[in-house]
Amino acid sequence: MSVMTQPTDALRQQDPQMADVLEGERRRQAETLQMSAAENFTSPAVLAALGSVLSNKYAEGYPGARYHGGCEYVDLAERTAVERARALFGVEHANVQPHSGSAAVLAAYAALLRPGDTVLAMGLAHGGHLTHGSPANFSGRWFDFVGYGVDAESGLVDYEQVQRLARAHRPKAIVCGSISYPRHLEYSAFREIADEVGAYLIADAAHPIGLVAGGAAPSPVPYADVVCATTHKVLRGPRGGMVLCGGEFAERVDRAVFPFTQGGAQMHSIAAKAVAFGEAAAPPFTRYAHRVVANARALAAALEQRGFAVTTGGTDTHLISADPAALGVDGPTARGRLAAAGIVLDTCALPYGDQRGIRLGTAAVTTQGMGEPEMARIAGLFAAALEGDAARTRAEVAALTGGFPPYGA
Ligand SMILES: *Cc1c(COP(=O)(O)O)cnc(C)c1O
């Protein structure tokens, strides 16, 4: 166990209450199965950058043009993060300051839109994110969102519907991206539709960007005007966001992030993003990204054999969405029984009806070193957990995770 992944002695001595919280969470992550599609285990190097003195530094502005003194080292950190992101994604411009994926989307809208503009995005009932027009979010309040969906039978994006809605509503921007869509999006089809109606194309690649980095998913960079992403999902970096774009939008994007929507950049996070980009550029990450997808495909097939109805019949990515109804439970009940057995995941909308399903991913378990034999075992644990034998299943989950400690033994 690396020292950096445990509560430090300083914290234990000064604040045992909070040290216990961190230790409890460390054990929870190690002893249960982390199958939330949005989560992963960062490397000890990423954690070291996060828990560093860079957290002390104020740095409003951009490298070489800061509103604070003493930025020579954090400027190096940000320049390095930007250069690595540009090389990793083959893009002209990268802004690595967004505090989160949602902050990156807000900045993209701020760069390209005005309040009241019409935006076409995947409807929330079909897998759109809160920032794609939820009435509870700034997006739904400040813009006029029109939602496209997926086909009820196939679960696939209905590109003809996207085109029809684009022609009818003439949106200022089209957003492609989802929290639960398990297949690759056809970025070229979205680009054609956007061009036909004179709309910007914004790709919200929060989920697949790590697969893109590892060459295991198509890149939206050649097609979208602006790409928003997170750094903490399959990409395995610190919690945070980024915006990628061509040179023509660089200035607008930078001004949209700072000073329009954010203040001082979080330099510890930016250094940790640089570390993660460095890791993602190396061959082991390419192998990792492909293993994530192979594991998700194996798990989807095994779940289907156990009676789960897997949306779209499988997956191209790390992400699986499934309806457990044939096993006698809905999504929220399934999530509860799985949690009781030590299997952690989320619920999600299904392409038909108003019942919810389950959403899971293989990014974290693959980081732990699990492979296809373990995916078959996990599908068996899912079935056992839904049958209600929580205590026995929990012991089997602990036995499985005990063989794959996320931060070494
Ligand atoms: C995760 C996600 C986000 C938001 O990321 P946060 O860091 O939680 O704000 C935005 N869009 C999509 C499609 C996502 O999956």
Spell out the key features of this protein.
about 400 residues; alpha/beta; Aspartate Aminotransferase, domain 1; 2 domains; about 15% strand; binds pyridoxal-5'-phosphate
Give me the secondary-structure topology.
Blueprint: H1 9-14, H2 16-31, E1 33-34, H3 44-50, E2 61-62, E3 65-66, H4 72-89, E4 93-95, H5 101-112, E5 118-122, H6 138-142, E6 144-148, H7 159-169, E7 173-176, H8 187-197, E8 200-204, H9 209-213, E9 226-230, E10 241-245, H10 247-261, H11 267-280, H12 283-305, E11 309-310, E12 319-323, H13 331-340, E13 343-344, E14 346-349, E15 356-361, H14 363-367, H15 372-386, H16 390-402
The structure holds pyridoxal-5'-phosphate.
Keywords: Amino-acid biosynthesis, Cytoplasm, One-carbon metabolism, Pyridoxal phosphate, Transferase
EC number: 2.1.2.1
Domain Serine hydroxymethyltransferase-like: 11-380
Can you describe this structure in just a few lines?
The chain is an alpha/beta fold and 409 residues long. Helix content is 45%, strand content 14%. It has 2 domains: 50-280, Aspartate Aminotransferase, domain 2 (3-Layer(aba) Sandwich); 284-402, Aspartate Aminotransferase, domain 1.
